[in-house]
């Protein structure tokens, strides 16, 4: 029962953080929605940051599995698209991390270190993709431009959901699928000026194929979303 209570706290906290923003959610609100005492919640978690850190640990583990490309594996636009699809789905499930990142970084030293490490790994993976495409003759790019493009790939992948939320905060829930599809294309479109003709055509084909096939199912995280209480902040 104790383990179930802990899992329920994490699941509901994720839902509330995503819906209302992590800074606007208190441990009292979480306990109230779960119909448990604050003392019961503090038995499992010392404070709200402890809950955030546990959620981030699950997120980081799933993200590592998504971006961990074996060294011997050849670069491929299809794999890049699939990995980005998995990344954007995971980012949506844990969207409070990206939307509230500045606030979290300001007060949570543990997250500051881990997020910095994740961002660096994103840049490294993007650079490996570009180098692999260049080696395969699918991309023509200088070393200097390659590093710039790799950084921009990681930048847009990281902040796309926040950008789209700022554009349409009232309808982002309904446009989740379209937002993720656009995000994948925005990231990979950075490669277009450097792609060889055949690779550019293949990217265009991928965009066309995924136009109607991109789905919202198959999230890689542990804590799936369900309806939360009709709380108004």
Can you walk through the features of this model?
The chain is mainly α. It has two domains: 1-45, Homeodomain-like (Arc Repressor Mutant, subunit A), CATH 1.10.10; 55-232, Tetracycline Repressor, domain 2, CATH 1.10.357. 70% of the residues lie in helices and 0% in strands. The protein contains eleven helices and no strands. The protein has helices at 2-20, 27-34, 38-44, 48-67, 77-93, 95-99, 101-107, 109-135, 143-167, 176-188, 197-210. α1 crosses α4. The longest helix has 27 residues, at 109-135. The chain is elongated, with a radius of gyration of 19 Å.
Outline:
The protein has helices at 2-20, 27-34, 38-44, 48-67, 77-93, 95-99, 101-107, 109-135, 143-167, 176-188, 197-210.
Give the topology:
Elements: H1 2-20, H2 27-34, H3 38-44, H4 48-67, H5 77-93, H6 95-99, H7 101-107, H8 109-135, H9 143-167, H10 176-188, H11 197-210
Helix pairs in contact: 1-2, 1-4, 4-5, 4-8, 5-10, 7-8, 8-9, 9-10
Question: What key phrases describe this protein's structure?
Answer:
single chain, 233 residues, mainly alpha, Arc Repressor Mutant, subunit A, Tetracycline Repressor, domain 2, 2 domains, 11 helices, elongated
Mean pLDDT across residues: 85
CATH homologous superfamily grouping of the largest domain: Tetracycline Repressor, domain 2
Low-confidence sequence ranges: 215-227
> What is the number of domains?
2
Biggest β-sheet strands, sense, barrel: none
SS-derived structural category: mainly alpha
The count of β-strands is: 0
- Total helix count? 11
Oligomer: single chain
How is the CATH topology of the largest domain named? Answer: Tetracycline Repressor, domain 2
Give the N-terminus to C-terminus distance in angstroms: 31 Å
CATH C-level label of the largest domain: Mainly Alpha
Shape: elongated
Strand coverage percent? under 5%
What is the alpha-carbon Rg in Å? 19 Å
Order of helices and strands: HHHHHHHHHHH
Helicity, as a percent range: 55-70%
Q: So, CATH architecture of the largest domain?
A: Orthogonal Bundle
Pfam families: TetR (PF13972), TetR_N (PF00440)
Keywords: DNA-binding
GO molecular function, one term: DNA binding
Organism: Parvibium lacunae
């Amino acid at each position: 029962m104790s383990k179930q209570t802990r899992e329920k706290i994490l699941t509901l906290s994720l839902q509330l953080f995503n819906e209302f923003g992590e800074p606007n959610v208190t441990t009292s609100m979480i306990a109230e929605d779960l119909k448990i005492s604050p003392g019961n919640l503090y038995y499992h978690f010392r404070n709200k940051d402890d809950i955030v850190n546990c959620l981030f640990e699950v997120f980081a583990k799933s993200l590592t599995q998504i971006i961990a490309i074996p060294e011997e594996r050849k670069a491929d636009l299809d794999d890049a698209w699939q990995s980005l699809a998995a990344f954007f789905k995971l980012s949506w499930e844990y969207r409070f991390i990206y939307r509230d990142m500045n606030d979290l970084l300001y007060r949570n030293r543990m997250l500051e270190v881990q997020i910095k490490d994740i961002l660096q790994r994103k840049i490294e993976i993007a650079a490996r993709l570009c180098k692999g495409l260049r080696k395969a003759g699918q991309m023509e790019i200088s070393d200097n431009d390659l590093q710039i493009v790799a950084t921009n790939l990681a930048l847009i992948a990281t902040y796309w959901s926040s950008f789209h939320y700022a554009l349409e905060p009232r309808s982002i829930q309904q446009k989740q699928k379209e937002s993720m599809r656009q995000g994948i294309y925005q990231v990979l479109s950075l490669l277009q000026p450097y792609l060889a003709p055949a690779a550019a055509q293949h990217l265009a084909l991928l965009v066309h194929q995924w136009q109607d096939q991109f789905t919202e199912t198959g999230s890689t995280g542990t804590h799936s979303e369900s309806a939360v209480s009709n709380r108004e902040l």
